[in-house]
Amino acid sequence: MREVRIDTPSGALHARRCRPGDAEGKGSPIVLMHDSLGCVALWRDFPARLAEATGREVIAYDRLGYGRSAPYPGPQPTDFIEEETASFGAVREQLALERFVMLGHSVGGCMAAEIAACHTDGCEALVTVAAQAFTEPRTLAGIREAERGFAEPGRMARLEKHHGHKAGWVLEAWVETWHSAPFAHWTLDASLAGVRCPTLAIHGEHDEFGSLAQPRRIASLTPGPAEPTILPDCGHVPHRECPERLIDAIRPFLTAPTSA
């Protein structure tokens, strides 16, 4: 496992590279995109486990404003999902990623789809996990409930453990952006229609932030399996709730001839 820094015009990004054992890895690396409150550290041991299971290098990076990356210069814009393609461009260039697989969790799945659509020359497969394809009441209600939970003793301290002084910005960016007027009718449809690589949409059966209509929309608008993979008895965070089953769903998809 190796820590690296990536320079961007707005500040440096923190990234971590996990290789399978001592090997270089076979096949294109998998790039992980974290969720709205996430960061590299909150993937826990999932990157290492995924690297071992697939034999591929796994790269995770903290988006600007999150984890150990530089603070975001101002409020988060409402086009932050599309904007992430610029940061990924720096990641791709500085890590020399000619070919790669995108895997994103929650809003990171939305970003992974945007990147797949913008980098069709290099993205050979896309995996979304608990991603949103449109704004629905369950998403907004789940965010409000989570926001109330941060008033409990110790909750903000746990967020600060991973984001430091940026924790307040991270929480506000999540809550306020999703409840803003531009997000009332937001959809990922245009970007999904631009994806050219095989796509696997994975979703927990009991995801508290998105109904099963979300992965079905993703699957219907992208190449790959016509139906999403639904993980029984699982909520919004499969890489913590059922990592073995998540990896078992990803591994055969990445070894299929169309995803090689």
UniProtKB/TrEMBL annotation:
GO molecular function: hydrolase activity
Family matches, as Pfam families: Abhydrolase_6
Region entry Disordered, spans: 1-20
Signal peptide stretch: none
Keyword annotations: Hydrolase
Entry-linked InterPro entries: AB_hydrolase_1, AB_hydrolase_fold
Domain AB hydrolase-1 residue range list: 30-249
Domain of life: Bacteria
PANTHER family attached to this UniProt entry: ALPHA_BETA-HYDROLASES SUPERFAMILY PROTEIN, HYDROLASE
Protein name in the entry: Alpha/beta hydrolase
Organism, scientific name: Halomonas aestuarii
Classification lineage: Bacteria, Pseudomonadati, Pseudomonadota, Gammaproteobacteria, Oceanospirillales
